[in-house]
Specification:
heterodimer, A: alpha+beta, Four Helix Bundle (Hemerythrin (Met), subunit A), six-stranded mixed β-sheet, 18 strands, elongated, B: alpha/beta, five-stranded parallel β-sheet, globular
C-alpha cells in the first residue's frame, strides 16, 4: 500500500519557500488526503484539518503575514506527527486546544476597507445582472426569515435561510470581483454562522444587526448598476461600522444599536436606476394557479425575462385582441355567407382568447413581495412608538398584474402606517379598554372575480369622526360636517391637503400625500373603502382589477357619442316606467326600482352631450356602484359588450374628470372609458345646492 | 467525462459550468437542489460531482451522504464548493464522503487542479 504518510506532508512543508503558492497548494492537498484517511489517528486528523483550514485562507499568506501562517501550519503538523508517532498510547487525551479559531477573522478584518463600489474591467456583465436579480431574491427571503425569527427565535430553518443569503451573496460576489459586497456579506455571514452554531444567541442587538445588514446589502446591490455604468458609487454610510459590529456583535453591537437609522432606508427601490432591471418574479402558469405554499426552488426550469419585454408582449397581445375584434365585427365576416370562412375565423378567435389568457398570466406575480416589506414597517414603527403589534398576513400568494403590485406599495404603506400610528393604542390604553396589550394588524388579500381585494384590519380605537372633522375644518377642506355620514367623514382622509406630505415622507421616503395615492389607485380602476367602529378598529379595503391590460366593457350610446362602461361596475340595466321617477326635494331626481330608490344620473348632462334622450322612458338605466353609493345612470342605448385595451388619453388631453382613458373600438374609432366612481362622486358633491337650483328651475 | 453540478444559485452554477468548459470539461448536467441532483445521478452517466455546501432542503453534506449510500455512488468523486474551511467543516466533509473541496472564489486553473488531485488520488488508491 503506497499510501501517503505524515512524512509526505512534512516533506511538502519543507519544500514551501516563501511566496511559493504552488508548493503551498501541494502541501494543502497532501494534508487533505491525510485528513481523508480514516485509518489515521482521529486527533492527528483534527490537527491536519486545522492545517488545511489555515492553508485554505489565501488572505493569511499575503506578504509579511505568510511567516506567521506557516508557523501555525507547522504547529498543527507537529501535533499530527506526535499523535501518529505515539499512536494509541494517548488515545483519550483532551483535544489539543491549539490556536484559537477566532484568529483568521481577526487577521482578515482590518484589511483596508474600500470606499467605493467598483467593478473590475473584465467583469462579465450578463453574469452580474443575473447575480443582482438572484441576490435580491435571497435578500427578500432573508428579510422574511428574520421577521419570522422575531416571533420564533429558535427557528433553525429560518436562521439557515438568512445564513444562506449572506453566504451565497458572499460566494458569488467574490467571483464577480464585487469586493465591497463580498467583504460585507462575509461579516454578516460570520455572525449568522455563530448564531447557527448556537455560539451567539439570536437576541439583543443581533436581530437588528442582521436586518441592517440586509438593508446595507440591498443598497449595495442597488448600486451595482451605477458601477456597471462606469460610476464609482459611494458605499453606504453604515458600511464600515456595521461590518465591524457584525464581526463582533458582543462589543460593537450595543454601541451600534444606539445610532439606529431611520426607517426611511426601507424603500430603497426608487433610487435604483432602471437600467437592466430584470423581472423579480417569474411565475409560470395561469393566474389562477396558486403558487406553492413554500417558495422552495421548483424542479420546473424557470426563465428570467426582462419586464419591458414582457410588458411589450402583453401590450401586443392586447392589440391583437382588438384587431381581431375589429375583424370579427366586419360586416363581411359577421354576416358571412361563406360557412368555411366563419369556421376559420371562430378557430382563430379561440386561439386569440387563449393567447390572451396566457399572456396575462405571465405578468401575474404574488403580492408577497409588497407585503414582506410591510412586516418590516410594522415592526419598526411599533418599536418606535412603544406599541405591541402582531402583524398577521393571509393570502399573500394572491396574484395580480405586476404593475399593480408596484402600484399597491404606496397605499399599503399609508394604510399600515395609519393603522400603527393612529389605530392601535398604546398597551396601557388597550388594557384600560379591556383589550389585550398586543394589538393586531391583519392584512388579507384575496381574489374576487376579476378583482383583487386587499384588506387591512386593525383592532385599535377606530377612526375618530370628531378628530377628522376638526382637522378637515382646520385645513379648510370643509366648512361643517354636521350633515355628513360617517363614510363621508372617513373619506376626508383621502382629501388633498388632509395628510401632509411631510408626515408621509418619513415612511415612504417620498413626498406623496394620501390624495395622490388615491388618485393613482383610481387611475388604475382601483377603489378604496373604509369601515370603522369606534373602539373596535378599522378596515381599509383596496379593490383593484386583476389586470390593467384589458377591460371588459359595455359600449353605450349617448346622443351621437359612444362610451365604454367597465362591465364589472354595472349591476344591472333596465328600462324604467314613467311613474318610477320622482324629484325629491333636496336630493334631485330619484328612481324606484326593485323596491329601492336610487339617485338618477343623466350622463349627457354631466358630459354635456347634445342630442341625447331626455325622456327617461326612451333610454336605458344602468345601476352602477355599490352599497349606498349606487346610482342609476341614464344612457340612450346599450350597444353590446366588448373587450377593450385601455389607453391613457395622452399628454395633450391630460386627465379628465370622469374618464379613465380611451380605447379603439371595433370600427376603428376611439371610445372613451367612463370612470363610474368619479362621475358618481362628482354627482354627489354637486350636492344639494345644485340640485335644489335644478328643481326650482 | 460528464459532470454533475449542484448549486441552488443559478449564477454560481453558471460560473462553475463556464470554468469547467474552459478547462476542457464541456459535458455538464446541472441541478438546483439535492433531490433533483440525486434524480439526475440515478439516470446514470455521471463521472464527477461538484456540489455546493449550503443549499436549502438538502445540504451538500446530506447530498454527498445520499450519493455514497447508493450502490452506484460509492466511488464517484465528489468535490465540494464552499467558502468556509474550519476544522469542523473539513472533518464533516470527509465524514460525509466528500473527496475534496474547493474554496470560493476559484479560478478555472485552480478548479482543474482540484479535479486532477481528486482523480489522481482515486487512481492511486
Amino acid at each position: 500500500m503506497s499510501q501517503l504518510t505524515i512524512d509526505d506532508a512534512i516533506a511538502a512543508f519543507v519544500a514551501c519557500e516563501p511566496g511559493d503558492e504552488a508548493a503551498r497548494r501541494r502541501l494543502r492537498e497532501r494534508c487533505w488526503v491525510l485528513v481523508s484517511n480514516k485509518q489515521l489517528d482521529a486527533q492527528a486528523r483534527t490537527a491536519l484539518a486545522d492545517a488545511v483550514a489555515v492553508l485554505d485562507e489565501p488572505a493569511r499568506f499575503k506578504g509579511e503575514l505568510e511567516a506567521a501562517a506557516m508557523e501555525e501550519v507547522r504547529r498543527h503538523l507537529e501535533i499530527a506527527v506526535d499523535r501518529v508517532e505515539c499512536g494509541a498510547s494517548a488515545m483519550s487525551e483532551p483535544e489539543p486546544t491549539a490556536a484559537p479559531a477566532a484568529a483568521p477573522v481577526a487577521a482578515a478584518a482590518p484589511a483596508e476597507a474600500p470606499a467605493t463600489l467598483t467593478i473590475p474591467a473584465d467583469a462579465d456583465r450578463a453574469l452580474i445582472e443575473d447575480f443582482l436579480a438572484e441576490a435580491r431574491e435571497y435578500l427578500e427571503t432573508a428579510e422574511a426569515a428574520l421577521l419570522q425569527l422575531e416571533s420564533n427565535p429558535g427557528d433553525a430553518e429560518a436562521i439557515n435561510d438568512v445564513f444562506r443569503a449572506f453566504h451565497t451573496i458572499k460566494g458569488t460576489s467574490s467571483f464577480l470581483g464585487l469586493e465591497a459586497v463580498a467583504g460585507f456579506a462575509h461579516h454578516a455571514e460570520d455572525m449568522l454562522d455563530r448564531v447557527r452554531g448556537a455560539e451567539l444567541a439570536f437576541a439583543g442587538v443581533v436581530p437588528d444587526l442582521a436586518l441592517r445588514a440586509v438593508d446595507v446589502l440591498k443598497v449595495l446591490i442597488a448600486a451595482v448598476p451605477a458601477a456597471l455604468a462606469g460610476g464609482a458609487p459611494a458605499l453606504p454610510a453604515e458600511y464600515a461600522a456595521l461590518g465591524l459590529a457584525l464581526s463582533n456583535p458582543e462589543q460593537h453591537g450595543a454601541a451600534a444599536a444606539a445610532v439606529r437609522p431611520e426607517v426611511a432606508a426601507i424603500e430603497e427601490a426608487p433610487s435604483v436606476p432602471i437600467i437592466g432591471r430584470t423581472a423579480e418574479h417569474v411565475v409560470p402558469g395561469a393566474p389562477s394557479a396558486g403558487a406553492a405554499a413554500h417558495a422552495a426552488p421548483t424542479a420546473d426550469p424557470l426563465v428570467k425575462v426582462r419586464t419591458d419585454k414582457l410588458d411589450r408582449l402583453v401590450e401586443m397581445v392586447g392589440e391583437l385582441v382588438i384587431a381581431e375584434a375589429i375583424l370579427m365585427q366586419d360586416a363581411v365576416v359577421r354576416d358571412a355567407a361563406n360557412h368555411g370562412l366563419a369556421q376559420k375565423v371562430r378557430h382563430a378567435d379561440k386561439i386569440v382568447r387563449e393567447l390572451q389568457d396566457l399572456s396575462l398570466g405571465l405578468r401575474m406575480v404574488p403580492l408577497k413581495g409588497a407585503i414582506t416589506k410591510l412586516q418590516r414597517v410594522v415592526r419598526d414603527l411599533a418599536a418606535r412608538s412603544g406599541k405591541q403589534i402582531a402583524f398577521e398576513v393571509s393570502g399573500e400568494e394572491t396574484e395580480v398584474d405586476r404593475t399593480l403590485v408596484d402600484l399597491l406599495a404606496d397605499p399599503l404603506l399609508h394604510m399600515v402606517r395609519n393603522a400603527v400610528d393612529h389605530g392601535i393604542e398604546p398597551p396601557s390604553e388597550r388594557l384600560k379598554a379591556g383589550k389585550p396589550a398586543m394589538g393586531t394588524v391583519r392584512l388579507e388579500a384575496m381574489q374576487a372575480g376579476d378583482r383583487v381585494l386587499v384588506k387591512l384590519h386593525d383592532d385599535g380605537r377606530g377612526l375618530q369622526r370628531e378628530k377628522i372633522l376638526r382637522k378637515a375644518i382646520e385645513k379648510g377642506i370643509i366648512q361643517s360636517g354636521d350633515t355628513m355620514s360617517d363614510a363621508e367623514v372617513f373619506e376626508l382622509i383621502w382629501a388633498p391637503g388632509f395628510s401632509t406630505a411631510e408626515a408621509v415622507t418619513e415612511v415612504s421616503g417620498r413626498g406623496v400625500g394620501m390624495d395622490v395615492v388615491r388618485r393613482n389607485l383610481t387611475a388604475m380602476r382601483g377603489r378604496t373603502v373604509i369601515a370603522s367602529t369606534p373602539g373596535q378598529g378599522s378596515t381599509f379595503t383596496i379593490e383593484l382589477p386583476l389586470t390593467l391590460a384589458i377591460t371588459d366593457g359595455m359600449l353605450v350610446r349617448v346622443g351621437a357619442e359612444r362610451f365604454i362602461v367597465p362591465t364589472a361596475r354595472i349591476q344591472r340595466c333596465f328600462r324604467p316606467e314613467p311613474s318610477a321617477v320622482h324629484t325629491v326635494q333636496g336630493r334631485g331626481e330619484m328612481v324606484h326600482t326593485g323596491g329601492e330608490v336610487l339617485p338618477l344620473f343623466r350622463l349627457h348632462r354631466a358630459l354635456r352631450v347634445v342630442g341625447a334622450q331626455e325622456a327617461i322612458t326612451d333610454g336605458i338605466l344602468m345601476v352602477v356602484g355599490d352599497g349606498d353609493r349606487r346610482v342609476a345612470i341614464l344612457v340612450d342605448e346599450l350597444l353590446g359588450q366588448q373587450q377593450v385595451v385601455a389607453k391613457p388619453l395622452g399628454e395633450a388631453v391630460g386627465r379628465v374628470r370622469g374618464l379613465t382613458g380611451g380605447a379603439i373600438l371595433g370600427d376603428g374609432r376611439v371610445g372613451l372609458i367612463l370612470d363610474v366612481d368619479e362621475l358618481v362622486e362628482a354627482h354627489r358633491s354637486r350636492g344639494t345646492g345644485a340640485e335644489t337650483a335644478e328643481a326650482a328651475a | 467525462m460528464r459532470f454533475l453540478v449542484v448549486d441552488d444559485s443559478a449564477t454560481m452554477r453558471r460560473i462553475i459550468v463556464n470554468s469547467l468548459d474552459r478547462v476542457g470539461y464541456p459535458d455538464v448536467v446541472e441541478a438546483d437542489d439535492g433531490q433533483t441532483a440525486l434524480a439526475k445521478f440515478a439516470e446514470g452517466g455521471i463521472s464527477f460531482i461538484i456540489t455546493d455546501w449550503n443549499m436549502p432542503n438538502m445540504s451538500g453534506l446530506d447530498f454527498a451522504r445520499a450519493v455514497r449510500a447508493r450502490a452506484d455512488g460509492a466511488a464517484v468523486p465528489i468535490l465540494m464548493v464552499t467558502t468556509r474551511s474550519a476544522r469542523e467543516d473539513i472533518l464533516a466533509a470527509v465524514d460525509a464522503g466528500v473527496n475534496n473541496y474547493v474554496l470560493k472564489p476559484f479560478t478555472p486553473p485552480v478548479l482543474k487542479e482540484k479535479i486532477d488531485a481528486v482523480l489522481s488520488v482515486g487512481a492511486a488508491a
